[in-house]
Amino acid sequence: MNSRERVGLALAGKTPDRVPIQFDLCAELLEGFSKKMGIELSYSDSYYEDLKYRISGNELRTRMGSDCVVVGGGHPSGYEEEELDTGHKINEFGMEMRQGPLYMEVVEAPLKGIGTADRAEEYEFPDPHADGRYEDAKRDVAEFGDRYYVIGDCELTMFEMAWHLVGMEKFLRDLIRGEEYTEILLRKSLNWTKGVAEELAGLGVDALWFGDDVGAQNGLLLSPDLWRERFKPKYRELIDGVREIDEDITIIFHSDGAVAPLIDDLIELGVDVFNPVQPGVPGHEPRELKDRFGDEISFFGSIDQQELLPGGTAEEVEADVRKKIDVLGEDGGFMIAPAHIIQSDTSMENVETFIRSARKYGKYR
What we know:
alpha/beta; globular; 11 strands; 7-stranded parallel sheet; TIM Barrel; 4-stranded antiparallel sheet; 16 helices
């Protein structure tokens, strides 16, 4: 059984030969493993900087043990990112970005202070269909697609894209108030993501990975009723649209935080896979998730990268991997992965322990 077959069975709720593995690495870890293994590293640009590490280093990560490759949209042909004297960058969406301790951060939102629908109407998104935007994705689908499971990354799907354009506090406040411009920005964000998803589906990816972080450590960032009113119909439109291109494509939905109150809604929308199953937050106890939802949705993730991977011993990492496989991997329907891109506060040794343990305990037969 090759990796593509293995992941396909697992994410369809079935039992392959072993639990499949996926992981993403930050720049420091990519560089470290590239040097250690003597494998040339290639980076793929992304329309949003931090997504770069989802879609880069596929040759390296598959050689390390990943059963998946991840591809996405980059910059169009001839694009040159603007760099300021401060070292900050202006991305395609007009966001001023700086490198923080772990992630790129938006320090100046292009629609900061927005108050009218007209300003939202005037704001122009980049063209998701621009020439050259998917050249790296085409290359990786051609190189890996017959052996590895190919996931098309469409994160910052709608909610996150909109608040990055405005600023999180203001957008949340205005969303609750029902300000007219919020609907316009959400619709434009949806149309952008539709374009990206259509392009990736057209390339023949096996799955589309949509993502909007609507959870915090202790609950949702907005009420379930507000999410169902303002977002659920748009996700339905998005998912139904890509299934018209490929009726068999797998739909993965990513949200960090405690979002268990929305899992029934995700199932109703036709989502096949819930990611990242962030551990240690209310409603995400593995046994409860498996018992309540395991017959209707598959799980992808579950390994803590806030405390366990950065600070845990090898024995603790191995024990947690075994526990998650025993519960979430019971009778299939599970792909094990860290709950986020592994950051530079995690040692290379703990990354290797995660991979080794997943292989050791993940065998079904």
